[in-house]
Design brief:
alpha+beta; Maltose phosphorylase, domain 3; 858 residues; 5-stranded antiparallel sheet; 4-stranded mixed sheet
Length: 858
């Protein structure tokens, strides 16, 4: 087959452009460095035990004992070996480092979108570059939201495959749809895929309307059937991931609580206050046009704006202002804005006006809807309807994530506009009017921002006011401790003046300068693009010059903004990523002493930090941790019992109690003791508090009580002496049989071995006993006594228990991941089918080409 190099040349140029961009963005990767990502650091801690186990045995761990006293690894680290498309994905990424690979797929997938539609290839390259460099995608790579970036990258190729299928390319379109959807789902970010489904639904509605208008209803139904078959096959490929996640989610904080005292919303999904936590501000949406419209990232002002601090005369005030967050938007915090690009926004508006392409409207509607839903709690008229009525919507938080759909729609309509410009240059008069309107709605607004910044945004938010009050409160406490009484009033007046008057004034002044600089920056980029379009329409420059200049300007615009949030400082050696933690003195002390694997509760960061920090899980079997998918029952135990026990201990320690009184308090911490919490870290610099009342890995109780429901069980577990009594839900009465415990002081139960998938014990007792295991209950655990399977009982709300016969016995507790094992077979079979279909289609193309060549030669 003879290659047409002239036709292929733009693709080689595109490849060169994206590789240059990748090198500029991720230059330290060429030195063997990789990204240091906060969320990946947490993953590294949570997965430490499972990864060590795999390295030693070659087997997967299905349980992580080091996080929240134990939880499944389904949302931590699991290898879905049946899904062969995980390997296909590596090929699609050209085996580049993941951060480069995701940007490459985003670029290539978007370019494919435009090429199938036969839009101008150079306009397509410009749009693909804009899409790949949209700041949100780079920001989420910086913080470690890799699955999110991965899923976003496959949105465009799937959408164009859907479009192809409805255009009558049933075989190729249907096959590509199944192929790219399989990769999209394999990226394993269900929320992004869920949003993509909304876009597809809008597509389908428009296709249905067009089919009726064009009298092509049969074609629509046939194409829909093919796409449905592709959907089923793509789901089959990812069945092991989807099914295990679905089954596991029932047990997590996203599942249904059994507590009747919970808010009604909890039975259906997440609370609205939690869902709306990260809602984009309505005005903040102008970050599409001006990146620092709301200050950019929640980083200290001094990081990027030291020159602006020269305006602050007072040295102490300068220090406070320099450490103040640059961001003043409505979200609790952010790692960076959603900046689509000034030039892209300008030509997007132009495209809305001049393009007549059918796909403009479904994508515009999808983009507009995504913006309104991103406002979340700031636009409850719409958001509440979706939360209350749309299936699964209340399972997801962070409405601002919706903006990924707008970030796809805007560059696409930008391409439509540029394509229309260069393809129909004769309609100059109409386009000049549209050009002025687009310039006024983008460049004009940016200029107004610069001329009158205070008219459009506040530079000091309610969060700033609350933060200032907290600082003032902190200083007041320090003054009371260290300043003589007669000077305290004067000192407080000094700091009150700073935080109530001088600080807001200085912060507003600095933030205004930050805002104005970016507003002018956007205006200048729009002006440059506007001049280029003006010159082109008046035939002063040719299309290649216009298109080449736009590509260059987009790169010059977008790359420096992205460098604000991801730069050389984000890169470290791979060794530091693989081993990101260094044990403190207290960690080393515990590891040297903790030979039996007792649990640790790190309170050095306060009560909130104990259950929102993954670091201790890297070194210890932690009672706390960090996970967005923690078990519901464990979270409820934290809220209803553990918090109060830790608070009681903290109050006791703060009173300067004697060791005897502290020990007495520890003895009464029934829930922490049943979790085998032997070590409590109060400070990283001092020895741990050792709790000699921790109950160990397992013990026999003298009595048990049966309760009617979850409310009674969680209340009762905080009242009993967990060393001698257990509480059991009535649903497990059958497993208890007619057990009547005869307390046996000579009875023993001892853990003899531990691995994530198997724990063994030996027991000895003169009569049947009820054993309580300090292991978190999960339905996939099974118990064997002398090789015979026996019922496991859930006790004390979160623990496992079992009736142990009299005599000496060997007990094995095994995790049996039946959900994973059964679903893996389906994934493997579906993967093979889809790969065979793909290979078959490619072979048929090859044979067809050979046949056509043979006929031509004859």
């Amino acid at each position: 087959m003879k290659l047409n190099m002239k036709k292929l040349a733009p693709y080689f140029v595109a490849l060169g452009i994206i590789f240059i961009v990748l090198i500029v963005l991720f230059q330290p990767a060429l030195e063997g460095k990789t990204l240091k990502q906060d969320d990946v650091v947490s993953w590294n801690a949570n997965s430490a035990e499972a990864r060590d186990y795999y390295d030693k045995t070659g087997e997967q761990a299905f349980w992580a004992e080091n996080v929240f006293s134990g939880m499944p690894t389904y949302m931590i680290t699991i290898k879905h070996v049946g899904n062969l498309f995980l390997q296909v994905d590596k090929l699609m990424r050209l085996f580049l480092p993941f951060f480069m690979g995701f940007v490459f797929i985003g670029f290539a997938g978007f370019l494919l979108f435009t090429r199938v539609l036969k839009l101008n290839i150079w306009a397509g390259i410009a749009g693909a570059l804009a899409f790949a460099l949209s700041s949100y995608f780079i920001v989420i790579l910086a913080v470690g939201h890799n699955a999110k970036a991965h899923a976003i990258a496959y949105m465009a190729p799937y959408l164009i495959a859907v479009y192809m299928t409805y255009r009558g390319k049933y075989t190729l379109g249907g096959l590509l749809a199944a192929f790219f959807l399989a990769l999209e789902i394999a990226a394993n970010h269900i929320q992004i895929t869920y949003y993509l489904a909304f876009v597809v639904l809008i597509f389908v509605i428009f296709e249905f309307a067009w089919a009726i208008i064009d009298k092509q209803l049969k074609r629509f139904l046939y194409a829909s059937g093919i796409l449905l078959a592709g959907l089923i096959l793509a789901v089959g490929v990812n069945f092991s991931t989807l099914y295990t996640s679905y089954e596991y989610s029932k047990e997590t904080i996203r599942g249904k609580s059994e507590l009747t005292k919970k808010d009604a919303n909890d039975s259906k999904g997440l609370e609205k206050s939690y869902i709306y936590g990260w809602s984009y501000g309505v005005g903040e949406t102008f970050t599409f046009l001006v990146p620092n419209y709301a200050g950019g990232a929640s980083q200290p002002i001094e990081i990027e704006n030291k020159d602006l601090l020269k305006k602050v005369d007072d040295q102490q005030l300068k220090q406070v202002v320099g450490g103040w967050p640059q961001y003043w938007g409505e979200q609790p915090g952010t790692s960076g804005p959603v900046y689509v690009g000034a030039i892209v926004m300008f030509l997007f508006v132009l495209g809305l006006i001049i393009s007549k392409h059918r796909l403009k409207w479904p994508l515009f509607i999808a983009g507009a809807l995504s913006v309104m839903l991103a406002w979340g709690g700031n636009f409850t008229a719409l958001s509440d309807f979706f939360v209350d009525n749309i299936p699964m919507y209340n399972k997801f938080r962070t409405p601002s994530m919706w903006l990924v759909i707008a970030e796809l729609a805007i560059p696409f309509i930008f391409v439509l506009g540029v394509h229309e410009l260069v393809s129909n240059a004769d309609r100059i008069k109409q386009k000049m009017r549209a050009l002025y309107i687009a310039f006024g709605l983008t460049g004009g607004i940016a200029l107004l921002f610069w001329l009158s910044p205070g008219s459009f945004t506040s530079f000091y938010s309610s969060q700033d006011e609350n933060r200032a009050k907290e600082y003032l409160k902190m200083y007041a406490g320090e003054i009371q401790k260290s300043v003589p009484v007669e000077q305290q009033a004067e000192q407080m007046a000094f700091y009150s003046d700073i935080f109530e008057n001088k600080l807001p004034e200085s912060v507003v002044e600095v933030r205004t300068s930050i805002f104005k600089a970016d507003a002018m920056r956007s205006f200048l980029f729009i002006l440059a693009a506007g001049v280029l379009v003006f010159l082109f329409l008046h035939k002063k420059i040719k299309a290649p010059v216009l298109l080449g200049a736009l590509i260059l300007l987009i790169a010059i615009d977008m790359i420096p903004v992205n460098k604000r949030y991801l730069n050389n400082k984000n890169f470290v050696s791979k060794k530091k990523v693989d081993k990101p933690f260094t044990p403190s003195a207290v960690d080393q002390s515990i590891m040297a002493d903790n030979k039996d694997g007792s649990r640790v509760l790190d309170l050095s960061g306060g009560l909130g930090g104990a259950f929102n920090d993954a670091t201790p899980s890297y070194f210890h079997r932690s009672v706390g941790g960090y996970s967005a998918a923690k078990l519901m029952r464990y979270q409820e135990l934290i809220e209803n019992q553990i918090y109060s026990e830790v608070s009681m201990l903290g109050a006791n320690l703060n009173q300067g109690s004697t060791m005897g009184r502290v020990d007495s308090t520890l003895a009464n911490l029934g829930v922490l003791n049943m979790l085998n919490t032997k070590y409590l870290i109060l400070s990283k610099e001092s020895a741990p508090l050792i709790n000699n009342h921790a109950l160990g890995h397992a013990w026999f109780v003298d009595t048990y009580s049966v309760v009617e429901n979850a409310d009674q069980e969680i209340a009762r577990v905080g009242e009993i002496n967990t060393a001698t009594e257990a509480v059991v839900d009535k649903r497990f009465v059958g497993a208890l049989g007619n057990l009547k415990i005869n307390p046996d002081s000579t009875a023993t139960i001892q853990q003899t071995s531990y691995s994530p998938n198997l724990v063994t014990y030996t027991t000895k007792a003169a009569s049947p006993q009820l054993a309580i295991f300090s292991e978190i209950w999960y339905p996939e655990w099974e118990l064997y006594i002398d090789g015979k399977k026996t019922d496991l009982i859930r006790a004390n709300y979160v623990l496992r228990a079992a009736v142990i016969p009299a005599g000496e016995h060997k007990i094995e507790m095994k995790v049996h991941p039946k959900t994973f094992l059964s679903s893996t077979k389906i994934s493997l079979a579906s993967s093979i089918i889809l790969l065979l279909l793909t290979a078959g289609y490619l072979v048929s193309l090859f044979l067809k080409h050979r046949k056509e060549k043979s006929v031509t030669e004859e």
